[in-house]
Amino acid sequence: MRATAHRAGNSFRHDLEVGRHHLTSDEPEEQGGHDGGPNPQELLAASLASCSAITMEMYARRKGWDVGEVTVDVDYEPAQRGSPTKFRIDVRLPKELPDDQREKLMQVLAKCPVHRTLEGEVMFEERLELN
Length: 131
Fold this sequence. Notes:
The structure is a single chain. By secondary structure, the protein is an alpha+beta fold. It has helices at residues 40-63, 99-109, 113-119, and strands at 3-7, 14-18, 21-25, 71-77, 86-92. It has two domains: 1-37; 40-119, K homology (KH) domain (GMP Synthetase, Chain A, domain 3, 2-Layer Sandwich). The chain is built from three helices and five strands, in the order E-E-E-H-E-E-H-H. Helix 1 (40-63) packs across helix 2 (99-109). The longest helix has 24 residues, at 40-63.
């Protein structure tokens, strides 16, 4: 899996390529950007929210459950000196859904690939290539 960022103009805006998809990331105006897209940290929160929702919906589909509309909100607080990064995940499910299904879906939520990546050990390898 590969993602590539290319600067677009003389600002912080970057065009992103992820597979065959194209996205834009930028910084808000108060940070020197033009607010042409979500900033990288917002993209991280969006990644966790979408992965959580998709993972729950995939599980429900395999079980043959009609879960209706699933909404996942993620609030992300980057690490500050002396405190860890914090994610709060709020899930909204239909009240008609049986308790056992709601409980299982909340367990499955923590197994989404992005959630597991964020809570696991991460390694980085930086390389420099000259044009």
